[in-house]
Amino acid sequence: MNAFFDKFKTNKPAAEAEGEGKVQAPKVPSDLWVKCSGCDTPIYRKVFEEKLKVCDKCGFHHKLSSYERISLLTEPGSFEELFTEILPADPLNFGEEYMTKLAADQKKTNLNDAVLTGKAKVGEHNVALGFMDFFFRGGSMGSVVGEKITRILEYGADNRLPVIIATCSGGARMQEGVFSLMQLVKTNAAINRLGEAGVPYIVIMTDPTTAGVAASFAAIGDVILAEPGAIIGFSGRRVIEQTIRQKLPPDFQSAEFYQKHGFIDKVVHRRMMKKTLVRILNFFNPKAKKTEDVVAEPEKQTVEV
């Protein structure tokens, strides 16, 4: 009897022994599919990226990184980053844990902080720009974000370059307390200087644009655009309802709601955003070459990080 069972003995782990002689199924990458945050529809990642991270079924515009937005809106190879020397600190002494989180986000996003600033071309127009990144501490505005936004606005004023800023933020950064709140005033002062120089300032509100960012430089552009369905507002829906003791409309704090009430000039699909920007820039600079009809259709491009 023992001899009979001996032939089944093996030094290999049970799971490995059971699979011996069988064709092993190839491992399927875990990131081939993306679930839409708007309707839970699974989307093949390649199609998702080709569609600029917009769901075909419900039209939900998923978040883009700063570099993806650069690729989407500017001419290839034209972007030059500015103010890379400005680095985050820990003014309130939150300690090692906070600095570790900052370092992790820097590695994940390849950014120093939650905004990427520089100069580039949009169509035939030279512009200064700042694109916020939600993947860095929720796009929160601390001293570095406020300083870089201020500097790019001043750079636009000094060089007479239109300034385009795409906002995506949960608001002021709590780990910097009052230092974060000071950025609201500082950025608004820079916008005032830009206006005195007669230089156009264009804002693109993306999901979400809230709290301290919505209450400062995001709200006072010469032209304010927004992506469809973007959440925009200062306080959260539940906080407002509890304060005023009333139910709010279903579409409250959406880009469409704000356009309807005159706060936003136009809600623009991501596919049409670059062409819309070129038309606006042509309006502010009528002597420039009219390029809106030759802007590449972005749905045929793959957004790259």
Description:
There is one protein chain. The protein has 305 residues and is of the alpha/beta class. 34% of the residues lie in helices and 16% in strands. Strands 3, 4, 5, 6, 7, 8, 9 and 10 form an 8-stranded mixed sheet that branches. Strands 1-2 form a two-stranded antiparallel sheet. It is globular and about 60 Å long.
Largest sheet: 8 strands, mixed
- Shape, principal axes of CA atoms: globular
The CATH superfamily title of the largest domain: 2-enoyl-CoA Hydratase, Chain A, domain 1
Radius of gyration (CA) equals: 24 Å
Secondary structure blueprint with pairings:
Elements: H1 2-6, H2 14-18, E1 33-35, E2 42-44, H3 45-50, H4 66-73, E3 80-81, H5 96-109, E4 115-122, E5 125-132, H6 143-159, E6 163-169, H7 177-196, E7 201-210, H8 211-214, E8 223-226, E9 232-233, H9 237-244, H10 255-260, E10 266-267, H11 273-284
Tell me briefly what this model is.
The chain is α/β, with parallel strands linked by helices.
Features:
305 residues, alpha/beta, 2-enoyl-CoA Hydratase, Chain A, domain 1, eight-stranded mixed β-sheet, 11 helices, globular
